[in-house]
């Protein structure tokens, strides 16, 4: 049964600005970007499994993690959650963590 259809478009610069609010803009892009702002944003919108995937992919990463990759990951997950909320809003009251996005490889 289809309860609704949801669609969402995320403006990537808006997510990037949200993640940069407390950073010094003159410092330029950070090569290792999983700072406090990105982690706090992830904690607000992700469920337990998603937080674990985020942690494996970005926080425990062996190499450098660039800002663009983290921003796109967070924006994409946010868009899916927002569209799910829009589709199910009349029928269910959802929190961000109620919708979990899990990829096949778990990351």
Automatic annotation (TrEMBL):
Keywords: Transferase
Cleaved signal peptide residues: none
InterPro entries xref list: 4-PPantetheinyl_Trfase_dom, 4-PPantetheinyl_Trfase_dom_sf
Family annotation (Gene3D superfamilies): 4'-phosphopantetheinyl transferase domain
Domain of life: Eukaryota
Residues in 4'-phosphopantetheinyl transferase domain copies: 4-103
Keyword Cell wall biogenesis/degradation attached: no
GO molecular function, one term: holo-[acyl-carrier-protein] synthase activity
Protein's name in the database: 4'-phosphopantetheinyl transferase domain-containing protein
Annotated source species: Rhizoclosmatium globosum
């Amino acid at each position: 049964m289809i309860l609704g259809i949801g669609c969402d478009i995320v403006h990537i610069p808006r997510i990037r600005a949200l993640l940069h609010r407390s950073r010094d803009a003159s410092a330029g892009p950070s090569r290792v970007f999983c700072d406090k702002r990105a982690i706090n944003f992830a904690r607000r919108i992700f469920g337990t499994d998603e937080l674990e995937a985020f942690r494996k992919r970005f926080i425990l990463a062996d190499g450098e993690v660039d800002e663009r990759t983290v921003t796109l990951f967070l924006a994409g997950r946010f868009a899916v959650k927002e569209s799910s909320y829009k589709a199910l809003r009349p029928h269910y009251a959802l929190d961000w963590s109620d919708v979990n996005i899990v990829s096949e490889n778990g990351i």
